[in-house]
Automatic annotation (TrEMBL):
Keywords: ATP-binding, Ligase, Nucleotide-binding, Protein biosynthesis. Allows the formation of correctly charged Gln-tRNA(Gln) through the transamidation of misacylated Glu-tRNA(Gln) in organisms which lack glutaminyl-tRNA synthetase. The reaction takes place in the presence of glutamine and ATP through an activated gamma-phospho-Glu-tRNA(Gln). This is Glutamyl-tRNA(Gln) amidotransferase subunit A. It is an enzyme of class 6 (ligase). Belongs to the amidase family. GatA subfamily. One of its GO terms (biological process) is translation. Transmembrane segments: none annotated. The gene is gatA.
Amino acid sequence: CYDLIAELFERIERSKLNAFITLNKEEALKKAEEFDKGKLKGKLAGIPVAVKDNISTKGLRTTCASKMLANYVPPFDAHVVERLKQEGAIIIGKTNMDEFAMGTTTETSYFGVVRNPYDLERVAGGSSGGSGACLHNESVLALGSDTGGSIRCPASFCGVYGLKPTYGLVSRYGLIPYANSLEQIGPMANCVEDLALLLEVIAGKDERDSTNAGVDFKFEPEDKRYRVGIIKEMSANDDVMKVFEEVVDIVRERHEVVEVSLSSLKYALPAYYIIAMSEASSNLARYDGVRYGYALEKLDTWTRYFAKVRAEGFGEEVKRRIMLGTYALSAGYYGRYYLKALRVRTLVRNDFQRAFKHCDLLIAPTMPTPAFKIGEIQDPLTMYKMDVNTVPANLAGIPALSMPMGFVKGLPVGLQVMGNYFEENKILSFALELE
Ligand code: GLN
């Protein structure tokens, strides 16, 4: 194990992907030694795992890819990190991401963009871009977080598997929050079985997250003929649709395929961004340069100090979202934007529930395009629109997987598989059979 882990670090140090922000080399090599002496036990004993840099790791720098937290070393482990350690996993480092998980390409990282393993000129997706890219050959497993597609997007762009679990299945204790009501930590891997194993380890009861459902997960593959719905409102460009339709033909050989329409989905994207930005504006108020994070030497007046810390510590995209979120929550506009978005959220949830009355699973392309060129999308609105197929699952809280479904001009594209609450077993069984 020692030699393998040492070789992994050599690879990472030589790599052009920029998938990692901080390496845990010394500690990881120590663990590998323990494994070789037969002292490391558990379901993940000796397996390298990369952890997204918004998940707290005791004694290991956790930056959220922001200047604001560039020197922050958490005094505690997130629940999922405790679980990894209990099961003998070797945490090799913290992965690069969009600043505070706000983005779809990892271009907003203070530590530079992550490059796509299939084409270094292209993005790896985001916001868990480092966790997606590192699975190419720099880690075996990775943890990401998904507020509106941040696990599934890089999984699609990097040709790997990524699952956003049911809201409440995995404890968010120790996840630095962006939009609490939408996000989940989830597994990323190179095959269904690895993905399921990592989910088994991180899922389960934790009283420190009040939204935790207290439910365990155990993968028991079932061999069933499912009723699979194709969501009419979730589309992609022509090249991606061609691959998708080929996959649908394969699915049809084993399962019953029907078309379903979820009419509320046309409002899902704006509703997601209103809710996400509103929650973000409130969550990010804690970065005041006093308690932790970026600070200035001289304290002028309190308000000037506060403004300066935040002006210097946050990047452009984060500031844009804090401003828009604050606006959406302000007294005169609360009813006009935030409350309306919450209503749409209910409609989306109800539409999914109606669909799951007669479908076991729903499928769609994960992303509307394959990975695009770094710097190609400059306009924020065009960028937000890339999330159109991924955000509905977060609004509804249902589990959603992205798995590789083929290639478009040498670039991987993902198939999204959604199930009803806590039906990860169905999703993974379906994926295992299709793999
Ligand atoms: N791209 C989406 C956003 O920027 C998703 C982010 C995420 O899931 N963390 O909000």
